UniProtKB/TrEMBL annotation:
InterPro entries given in the database record: ConA-like_dom_sf, MAM_dom, MAM_domain-containing
CDD domains on file: MAM (cd06263)
A Pfam family recorded for this sequence: MAM
UniProt GO cellular component terms: membrane
Residue stretches making up the MAM domain: 5-134
Identification of the protein by name: MAM domain-containing protein
Annotated PANTHER family: APICAL ENDOSOMAL GLYCOPROTEIN PRECURSOR (PTHR23282), MAM DOMAIN-CONTAINING PROTEIN (PTHR23282:SF101)
Domain of life: Eukaryota
Amino acid sequence: GSSGEKCDFETDLCKAFNELNLQPGWIRRNGQSGVGPPYSDHNGNDSAYFLSLSSEMRFSSATLRTNVFLPTDEEHVCQITFHYWIGRTSGTLMVGLQKHSEDNITNIWQDSGEWQNQWKANTITINSAEKYEV
């Protein structure tokens, strides 16, 4: 959203997500958790938390849904910047947009991880004349 709040998962799932929106398969962990790479966050901090897919989810998919965002307009553009890591077990990370009048989710960005085992950053800009979730 336009207010520019940061979400770092240090204490909780931030305002953007709530517990109900964390599907089975997603875990909040840090690099010291012994789960495997990544062993630090995008800043190289091994005690900083991030969200990760558990290894049991290797062949299936899991979704993270944001809370509802208000419509965008000329003054209120929504830009979401996020850091992500795709490991060796190749998967696809997708960002979808669901407007409240629509049942379907529109895929607005994806990456299948050609640059594996390193953190990457991406910014997406969202325009929606109605309330939406990402």
